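Key result, reporting period 2: structure in, sequence out.
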């Protein structure tokens, strides 16, 4: 029997909604069965961030070479820095039958929607805009100016919600993780069912 390709799971949403927090919580759970794809970025590491763990930190020149060489599945310029997904890791992991989990901003997610239409696209939404603002301020990693840019971007990003297969509210981190796991499980069941029906049809049953 042929090995089923893994599922490409894309988690996106506005900056400050809690994508990183939810992703870290998901991957700290021992029964999580997805492989996290570590992104490349030209952003400077924040305190405590480790190269090759949080991101692969690259210079602008290195990043642009990766773009030219077609080594990125998608990339975006987000608030002055490049971010991108290494294509080789994603393909090799999916081919090995493992699910890959991407946590990326909305421009990159839209590119993947075009290239990988059978991916699973999940939008993480804040309970409200004011809560989103509070979270960005509360995190304390950006200057006021950067926060203002990110909130302006968030308004546009929220409009893209309807392009996704699912919207998950991040009211509580654990609840958001449970919802994501339930969606992935349901999607696997749906695909298995479709595959079975397709094979039965080919056999003329
Ligand atoms: N398109 C794209 N966005 C990414 C990638 N990796 C991270 N991001 C997104 O880039 C944005 C900024 O990330 P970061 O600077 O770490 O800030 P934070 O997520 O707000 O803590 C976030 O929305 C991330 O989800 C990637 O590989 N591609
Ligand atoms: N469900 C939640 N309830 C309250 N605060 C949250 C929740 N999820 C995340 N946060 C907080 O919001 C801030 C932004 O979260 P973060 O994961 O950095 O967002 P993103 O990766 O989407 O930019 C952080 O200070 C984080 O602790």
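The corresponding designed sequence is given below.
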């Amino acid at each position: 029997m042929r090995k089923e390709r893994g599922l490409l799971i894309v988690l996106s949403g506005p900056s400050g909604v809690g994508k990183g927090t939810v992703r870290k919580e998901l991957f700290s759970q021992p029964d999580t069965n997805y492989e996290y794809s570590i992104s490349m970025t030209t952003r400077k590491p924040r305190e405590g961030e480790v190269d090759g763990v949080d991101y692969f930190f690259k210079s602008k020149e290195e990043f642009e070479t990766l773009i030219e060489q077609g080594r990125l599945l998608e990339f975006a310029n987000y608030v002055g820095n490049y971010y991108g997904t290494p294509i080789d890791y994603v393909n090799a992991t999916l081919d090995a039958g493992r699910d890959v989990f991407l946590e990326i901003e909305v421009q990159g997610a839209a590119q993947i929607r075009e290239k990988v239409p059978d991916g699973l696209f999940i939008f993480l939404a804040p309970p409200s805009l004011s809560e989103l603002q509070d979270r960005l301020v509360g995190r304390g990693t950006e200057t006021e100016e950067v926060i203002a840019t990110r909130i302006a971007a968030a308004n546009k990003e929220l409009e893209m919600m309807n392009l996704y297969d699912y919207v998950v509210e991040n009211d509580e981190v654990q609840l958001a993780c449970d919802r994501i796991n339930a969606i992935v499980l349901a999607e696997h069941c749906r695909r298995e069912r479709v595959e079975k029906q397709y094979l039965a049809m080919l056999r003329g049953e």
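The chain has seven helices and nine strands. The radius of gyration is 18 Å. This case is discussed further under Risks and Mitigation.
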